[in-house]
Specification:
The protein has about 150 residues and is of the alpha+beta class. The protein contains four helices and five strands; from the N terminus they run E-H-E-E-H-E-H-E-H. The strands form two sheets. The chain has a three-stranded mixed sheet with strand order 1-5-4. Strands 2-3 form a two-stranded antiparallel ribbon. Strand 2 and strand 3 form a beta hairpin. Helix 1 runs antiparallel to helix 2. The longest helix is centred in the middle third of the chain and has 20 residues. The protein is globular, with a radius of gyration of 21 Å.
Length: about 150
């Protein structure tokens, strides 16, 4: 019997450089909120007029902040004046499975012990930085909040 292929979800994100950190952080918290197994008290955060779930775990918060910071640094180091800088971030979920002993030989040599990490789900974020434009096609200056206040 052939092993089942793990699901892989691809999210393509177009983001303004001023909002990319909040957007990616919000997406990661949403993914982890639905995959976090220990008991927790639900909480939420506003991201661009959306209320998104948050996992209030200091260790996970630190990990998310570190990875988002690395991604933003990568995007800003490769950005061009016209935008279009791209980056990817993968979130992989693993399950530990006890490795099966390989007969008596494995018992004698000790090679049948230990755990295998099996990836059971992948989330791939493909982020593209874009420069927002006005209706006339000129690059818009200011942040999302400035634009939102004008409309």
């Amino acid at each position: 019997m052939e092993p089942r292929k793990r699901p892989e979800y691809v999210l393509e994100v177009l983001a303004d450089p001023t909002c990319v950190k909040d957007i990616v952080r919000g997406i990661l918290h949403t993914i982890f909120f639905h995959r976090y197994f220990p008991p927790m008290r639900p909480s939420s955060r506003q991201v661009l007029d959306l209320t998104l779930p948050v996992v209030a775990d200091p260790e996970l918060e630190t990990l998310i902040e570190t990875r988002v910071g690395q991604l933003v640094r990568q995007l800003s180091s490769t950005s061009s004046p016209t935008g279009g800088s791209r980056g990817e971030l993968d979130v992989r979920f693993f399950e530990k499975r006890r490795r099966k002993a390989s007969g008596l030989g494995g018992w004698l040599t000790g090679t049948g012990k230990g755990d295998d990490e099996i990836c059971w789900e992948v989330w791939r974020l493909k982020i593209t930085l874009t420069t927002p434009r006005t209706e006339t096609g000129k690059p818009r200056s200011g942040s999302y909040e400035d634009w939102k206040a004008e409309t």
